[in-house]
Amino acid sequence: MKKKIAQKKAAEKAAELEKAQQELEAAEKELKEEEAEKALFKEIASKITKICDDNNMFCGAVLTADDIATIVSLAIQAKENIKIPFRLYFNE
User: Fold this and answer.
1) What is the pLDDT of residues 32-81, one digit of tens each?
2) Helix (H) or strand (E) holding 86
């Protein structure tokens, strides 16, 4: 009887260990994907920065206080994120 209980507990622990290993593998896979995505963003941002620097340009959004107030108001009304596309400006 004790042997069956011990075997059952051992099987439960083995199943828990297998589940934990699968969760760990999934988390490691997700981490690698996120790291690859970060590396891609960093590479592209670096290329954009170099192109802008080479052409004496600024890539981004120039916002006034009124622009920011309008954007905040829109975000509150829409209850969604507001996307602002980039613009290119010559550095002066």
Assistant:
1) 999 999 999 999 999 999 999 999 999 999 999 999 999 999 999 999 99
2) none
Residue corresponding to tokens 């981490």: 31
Same domain, residue pair 50 and 90: no
**One domain, residues 6 and 44:** yes
Q: Evaluate whether 61 touches 86 at the Cβ level (below 8 Å).
A: yes
Residue type, 54: D
76 and 48 assigned to the same domain: no
Residue 91 sits in the same domain as residue 64:
yes
Q: Which residues does 85 contact at the CB level (< 8 Å), separation at least 6?
A: 61
Whose tokens are 């507990």? That residue is 9
pTM, two decimal places: 0.64
